[in-house]
Amino acid sequence: MRSLTNLLSIKNFTIVFILAWLGLFILVPGILVILVSFFSPSPESFYQAVFSLESYTKLVDPTYLKVFENSLYLALWTTLFTFIVGYLYALAVVNCKKKWHAFLLILVLLPFWTNSLVRIYGIKNLLGANGFINQTLISLGIIDSPLRILYTDTAVIIGMVSILLPYMILPIYSSLQKIDHRLIEAAKDLGAGPFRRFTKIIFPLSFPGVVAGFTLVFLPSMGLFYISELLGGPKSLLIGSVIKSEFLFTRNWPLGAALSIAMIIILMFTMWLVNRFKIGRVE
After folding, report:
1. What pTM did the predictor assign?
2. Mean pLDDT for each consecutive 10-residue tract of the chain (283 residues)?
3. Could you tell me which residue ranges the ABC transmembrane type-1 domain spans (predicted)?
4. Number of Cβ within a 10 Å radius of residue 65
5. Residue 240 CB neighbour total at 10 angstroms
6. Domain range 61-280, its CATH number among 1.10.3720.10, 3.40.50.10320, 3.30.300.30, 3.40.50.2020
């Protein structure tokens, strides 16, 4: 009886601790951001506690709309390429011998052991005019002068794909691993070819992992501002870069908070669409 009481007390303490942590570091900062977004900017301070919708009216400015458009553009392309590479890799891992599964998954997890900023600097050196790619192509006689890869949208997409790829591979691998192979064998016995088996059985049953991968890749890719700043040019701005500038350099906290709220709304709407799509496919 005493051990049960101790167990319940530990469980209650854990629940209270988690709720307090989430409330202090997530709920309270979120409420503060919402409140600041309705305040007025002040040249003497970060903001003044006077109700104003000025920051939200600025969101329809063509400059900020262009940044939102560019962020969505880069996020969609990043998600698409990550899905193609991630699904093929996960499919290859599932179809190889089981003794290789652990090794191939460790290769996916290896990037997590290195700081992402360090990896981005490595990619920057790789894509530069004197980087490995250009020097290899020149030495092979394929090109005469270096290709301009760095400081373009292409470089930003390459960087984000390399950083976010594990988040696509792991959920897809998990879904593929759970597929009952007897279904595939039955379809094969009934005369279904590889393409038909993939489109009718493998991909539909792995769709929950695809949805999870899309969510884990698309949502962060709109805010990885350090990648766009290091690999992209001035036209490769992400909304995260603008928010950082408003808080740290321009010191217009109400506008930075309003941009953050707008980004959260976009991401929540995206998650809602993904969830509706997922429900429709599962049924």
Report:
1. 0.84
2. 60 80 88 92 83 90 89 92 95 89 88 84 88 87 86 91 93 91 86 87 90 88 86 81 87 91 85 65 43
3. 68-274
4. 11
5. 23
6. 1.10.3720.10
